[in-house]
Design a protein that fits this description.
about 90 residues; two-stranded antiparallel ribbon; 1 helix; elongated
């Protein structure tokens, strides 16, 4: 009779702060932490080949920096042409 495999402890890491970094720098930082970067635009569409001069937007990191996640987790990075906000989003009225 075979023994059940022991549960493996998942290793947790903190999501690094990559806000306002270029896509190249942000991707390298996320990879170095053992995580997987996924670049998206403001409408949350995947950006497979992001322009090298684009930046991670303010509040564009999910989960947010400092959050403890499992190694190998995906980190969504909203990117745009400017380091301070990129292309304007839709206008919202109260």
């Amino acid at each position: 009779m075979s023994q059940p495999e022991p549960e493996r402890a998942l290793v947790k890491v903190a999501v690094p702060d990559v806000i306002h970094k270029t896509v190249a720098s942000a991707g390298a930082t996320i990879h170095a932490a053992g995580l997987v970067p996924a670049f998206v635009d403001r409408s949350l569409k995947a950006v497979e080949d992001p322009p090298p001069g684009w930046y991670v937007q303010t509040d564009g990191e999910h989960p947010t920096r400092g959050t403890m996640v499992d190694v190998g987790s995906i980190v969504l990075l909203t990117i745009g042409a400017s380091s301070t906000g990129g292309e304007p989003g839709p206008i919202r009225f109260p």
